[in-house]
Amino acid sequence: MQILVSIAPLVAIVGLGVAFMLYKDVVKQSPGTERMQEIAEMIHQGAMAFLKREYLILAAFVGVVFVLLYIFIAPKTAVAFIIGAICSMAAGYIGMMGATKANVRTSAAANQSGQDAALQIAFSGGSIMGLTVASLGLLGISVFFMIYVMFFGVENVSYLAGFAMGASLIALFARVGGGIYTKSADVGSDLVGKVEAGIPEDDPRNPGVIADNVGDCVGDTAGLGADIYESYVGSVIATITIGAAMGSSSMAYMTLPIIVIMIGLISSIIGIASMKLMKGFDPASVLRYTSFVAAAIMLALSLVAVAGLGLGIGVWGALTLGCLAGIGIGLLTEYYTGMFGPVKKLAATTSTGAATLIISGFALALESVAPTVITIAIATYFANAFAGLYGIGLAAVGMLATVGITMSVDAYGPIADNAGGISEMSGLGPETRKITDGLDAIGNTTAAIGKGFAIGSAAMTALALFSAYTQAVGLESINLVNATVVIGLFIGGAITFSIAAMTMTSVGKAAMMMVEEIRRQFREIEGLMEGKAKPDPATCVDIATKASLKEMILPGVTAVLAPLVVGTLLGAEGLGGMLAGATVCGVMLALLMANGGGAWDNAKKYIEEGHHGGKGSDAHKAAVIGDTVGDPFKDTSGPAMNILIKLMSIISLVIAPLLIV
Amino acid sequence: MQILVSIAPLVAIVGLGVAFMLYKDVVKQSPGTERMQEIAEMIHQGAMAFLKREYLILAAFVGVVFVLLYIFIAPKTAVAFIIGAICSMAAGYIGMMGATKANVRTSAAANQSGQDAALQIAFSGGSIMGLTVASLGLLGISVFFMIYVMFFGVENVSYLAGFAMGASLIALFARVGGGIYTKSADVGSDLVGKVEAGIPEDDPRNPGVIADNVGDCVGDTAGLGADIYESYVGSVIATITIGAAMGSSSMAYMTLPIIVIMIGLISSIIGIASMKLMKGFDPASVLRYTSFVAAAIMLALSLVAVAGLGLGIGVWGALTLGCLAGIGIGLLTEYYTGMFGPVKKLAATTSTGAATLIISGFALALESVAPTVITIAIATYFANAFAGLYGIGLAAVGMLATVGITMSVDAYGPIADNAGGISEMSGLGPETRKITDGLDAIGNTTAAIGKGFAIGSAAMTALALFSAYTQAVGLESINLVNATVVIGLFIGGAITFSIAAMTMTSVGKAAMMMVEEIRRQFREIEGLMEGKAKPDPATCVDIATKASLKEMILPGVTAVLAPLVVGTLLGAEGLGGMLAGATVCGVMLALLMANGGGAWDNAKKYIEEGHHGGKGSDAHKAAVIGDTVGDPFKDTSGPAMNILIKLMSIISLVIAPLLIV
Q1: Between 20 and 30 A from B196 (CA), which of A166, A345, A525, B481?
Q2: Which residues, 6 or more positions from A520, have their beta carbon under 8 angstroms from its beta carbon?
């Protein structure tokens, strides 16, 4: 059964092939009118220009870290690191290519062929990202596993962590940079466009609108993709590392997670294919069923794999638990941020103004933390009861194994959002707009669920990495009775708050620059407001790009240095405390911010549907304030937490050889 | 030197005597015009009625817990518990008597004799609370120590925890109930009065104004007093408990904290007396210097005590460190929430509306967490290096030893605030109002510092109690490598978020009831707006009382049950993890909320001073939204965290006999 690992690279290449076919298929579709193509080209160019400049900065950073790892840790770690980083960047690039081709074609299909066709294209666009993430992760892990562990011997397993660190480092910058980009563009263009000038969202006269749409791509597609990719890679490598210490059957324990994600990729391809059979169904259900189909196939085949490897049923139990917890967390997120009781009650608080909306939304966000955390705690408890620390790692793998499909659904969202923007800007009329609005609304729900899922999987991955770290440094105990550990705990918690502060401040700064540029264009370009002259969106794109790339440096460097500094000052045990503190506080802050932001967003949408006075009412004005407050919560600072806790854990795992007690 | 403990009760009685003299002195002063007396009487009656009804509910609750402790833990614990609870209630009652007598006399003195006289009365009123808290704490601890430890033997030391638990239980309800009261009244009367009806703050036509002033007393005086009293008692008893295990010189280690707080009480009395020598100084400096005088005397005399007891200089170092950390935390709080750079920059963000103000304020609050936490971490690190776990306990004691004076300064704030309200309501003219405004402004700063200090001391106390707990249950290790501990950590963190959510939701609910009642009165009482008819403030007081008492039950009971449930399910080690998680997350949330609320409050005040357009401008409207959002942050949910973490720790310590491993 272990021999299956050697076919994993082939499966990964098949996955990439399917992604390429989907890409060809998307590109073949009609790109719409000339105006649509022009707008789409601007978004495409903006997104690609951002990625290129981001990757240029990251290349320098990756180069420096490569040299440090090569000298201070091990050449094998450094090599795995650089390939991990390159795979992450490649996944982001390919996913973005797919998304920026699919957006305009979704819009065109909505105009020419109706909802089914539009949904197919948007989902195919998302699947390019989903399959690329899953395939590149599987390819990298399986190849490095074969070379390092199967060829050089199991004592080389620790070098694998380099691959996860490469993924993690890229993810942090992609998430933070993308998050700052998307929200500075969004907040900036809304503040001037909607609030000051009183023109609608996505109005072509607003010079910030292209930047806003680029932001959806770089934040929600590339940022989220890098985040999930990192969890995926991190959880598998953490589980392999823990499995390496399982004595005589360690090879079976180490190969299982690789076989599981290989099965997961196959299941995802089947799930994506099953889409075609569900024509005419309601789009939200289609997206949901395909995910369930893939999860069920993955679990069934994994049971065979577990049995074939001669491992206990408890191991499969842990895997299943993780998969179920992922679904549970998604549903909880949907409950708190979707159009259900909590959000409807929240919308009602606008009757006494913005202050009560903010207070109630914050209370709702605080309230949403415990149920998710308890779901994670229960999954962790039983996974551990079933299969020890290995079980915790495998639960994380179970949550992420069908990433090929979950990521496809997530990446569908910004494509639908973009399609709506393009339809509006190119004046495709209310019928088309209705279809794209419908697809976009589903995208908002899947985005909220995706965020919850990203947090849940980040928490499980961080716990798995934490376990791998304690094993790697040879700690029998990280003892909370020691003052050093308690101090580490406090410092870890404080770091999450600081990074959240930095990213939120950055959005404010970058948004201010956007505001000034948009105001300037409204003031200086004659005839712009009357629709006689065109705005200059390229300047706005340029400002958002520069500002976000500049602002991502400080939080990124802080996150990288923190484990090094704390490890040096407080030792391996104190660093363990720091990781625990950061994980606990990071998960809670991430949930607080994601759910608060999501709830405010949908409270506004609920009012826009005509409740409490509808658009233009005082309630709506209050709701716009809530939505704006929620923007950096849910799309910048909250998501940054996910990566922060994983990145600090993975760096600790990589520097473990320097800290061995 | 140990014999000094036996004079501690006498010192405590002297302290109470001084408090009584101050009370007599305050009551002797002119209570002003008939109108003033009438208003003051309403506030007094409202506050006392609230306290009585609160104590009635608490009596039932205390009775039940007493029986449970008597049966399941030990009769000695139960007795200490009930006396601890009674002392806390007595301190609250006496302090409130003092405050509600001093407020109107401060107003009268400002009108008749000027700033110096007004400051003296307000500070004397605060000192009644300060000295009562310090004296009753010292009295109870020293008497129980003599009976339980000196008379029955050192093995009885664990029963002392009952006394701290009594203090803690009352504190939770006082803080939560008072916090909900004060903010529902404040938010409710502001929303209708200032925003809807457009009448100024403290306008006599607003039926909610009396309730608002009562709220200042029950929240800021009684609530804060119970909070600090609990830290004071908890830190000393935790340190005694740790000291009991110090082998042959354990008696010296156990008596030191008692002697230190006795010295602290003497120093506080000297500090209060030194006030009289500083006539003509700027009031803010006077309040600051008296605190420094007391701290310096306390540290100097403590050095003698440490030497006399034959303990190492490291012990004194830990004590000093705690004292300095307390001052440091106060200064950090002042920096982030006072009229300095951060708040001024925050005020500027109102130029783009409420949303950017909320985002920036939240970012500021997030940013403020790390410096304070790092101060606590440094103090903990060195206190531990100097004197082990005992050092951590003693650092907390050092922070709190001069509670007689720090609490006096804190309790001064709401008296000055009330005096301003009474001056406004009884139309004392702009000259008087200017003096009371000045005193109130200082009160706002001392309140912010007091909040920071309360959080810092709660954190140190919780750490000390945590150490005492691990000792009491006989745990050598609380191992973060065990999944149970990690799960405990997550659950502990989640509890703090849940309690914050509950208290914030409660404020919203209670405020809505107030809004409806005030609207009803404006609508139904003819001639009210024209000043021809009087409002009915008693109904508002009644609504706030009932609502806050009802709403305090759920969070209170949750906090009490959590350690029992988690201890039963996860065992002693898992409960240890829970305490750590709650302490870390609780401290961070408390800082976030206190500093965020304080900064928004002062940003509004800064604009009201005439910046960015001053009162009535768009910037001011945005600032009012920020201030309203900050109200439950800083005065309800934030402060609840302090007690929550202490209460859960002390309950764990008390139930330790049931969990011994």
Answers
A1: A345
A2: none
In sequence order, the 6+-apart residues with CB closer than 8 A to the CB of B332 are B368, B371, B372, B375, B452
- The secondary structure of B386-414 as a DSSP string is HHHHHHHHHHHHHHHTTHHHHHHHHHHHH
Are A383 and A190 spatial neighbours (Cβ–Cβ below 8 Å)? no
| Binary contact (B356, A470; C-beta < 8 A) | no
Assigned token pair, B315 = 């012990």
Cα(A605)–Cα(B262) distance, integer angstroms: 61
* Residue A246 pLDDT: 86
A199: phi then psi, degrees, rounded to nearest 5:
-105, 155
User: What is the model's pLDDT at position A390?
Assistant: 94
Closest CA to A594 of A639, A640, A626: A639
Are the beta carbons of A470 and B478 separated by less than 8 Å?
no
Say yes or no for a CB contact (<8 Å) between A477 and B479: yes
Q: What confidence tens digit (pLDDT) does each residue in A49-68 have?
A: 889 989 999 999 999 999 99
Q: How many CB pairs under 8 A join A and B?
A: 227
What is the model's pTM? 0.94
Q: Note whether B356 contacts A191, CB cutoff 8 Å.
A: yes
**C-alpha distances out from residue A537 to A42, A154, B352, Å:** 9, 54, 22
For residue B203, how many other CB atoms are within 10 A of its CB?
16
Q: A30 to chain B nearest CA, in Å? A: 41
Residues of B in contact with A377 (CB under 8 A): 487, 490-491, 494
Q: Minimal Cα–Cα distance from A136 to chain B, Å?
A: 32
Structure tokens at A97: 């290519």
Residue from the list A489, A500, A507 with its beta carbon closest to the beta carbon of B584: A489
Q: In chain A, which residues have their Cβ closer than 8 Å to the Cβ of B463?
A: 486
d(CA B285, CA B293): 12
Picking from A351, A356, A566 by the largest number of B CB atoms within 10 A of its own CB, the best residue to mutate is A356
Contact between A195 and B353 using a beta-carbon 8 Å cutoff:
yes
Closest CA to A353 of A17, A659, A617, A629: A617
Nearest to B409 by CA among B448, B438, B441, B450: B450
CB contact under 8 A, A497 and B356: no
- Tokens representing B458? 């709660």
Cα–Cα nearest to B503, from B336, B307, B368, B635 = B635
Two structure tokens written together for A595: 């759910």
pLDDT at position A146, please?
94
Please tell me which residue of chain A has the smallest CA distance to B624. Answer: A355
Contact B411, A525 (CB under 8 A): no
- Among the partner residues B384, B491, B497, nearest to A366 by beta-carbon distance: B497
Q: How many CA atoms lie within 13 A of A516 on its CB side?
A: 7
Q: Which of A336, A366, A377 is nearest to A593 (CA)?
A: A366
* A481 with B504: Cβ contact below 8 A: no
Contacts 24+ apart (CB under 8 A), B278-281: B279/B116, B280/B116
Pick the range with the lowest mean pLDDT from A201-205, A311-315, A463-467, B507-511: A201-205
The answer to whether B584 contacts A584, with C-beta atoms less than 8 Å apart, is: yes
CB atoms inside a 10 Å sphere around CB B300: 11
CA closest to A469 among chain B residues: B481
Residue type, B132: T
Nearest to A580 among B363, B486, B498 (CB): B486
What CA–CA distance (Å, rounded) separates A520 from A514? Answer: 10
Q: Which of B438, B454, B448 has its CA nearest to residue B335?
A: B448
The CA distance from A268 to the nearest CA of chain B, in Å, is 31
Interface predicted TM-score (ipTM): 0.93
List the single residue in A376, A504, A576 with the smallest CB-CB distance to B490.
A376
Q: Contact, B268 vs B405, CB < 8 A? A: yes
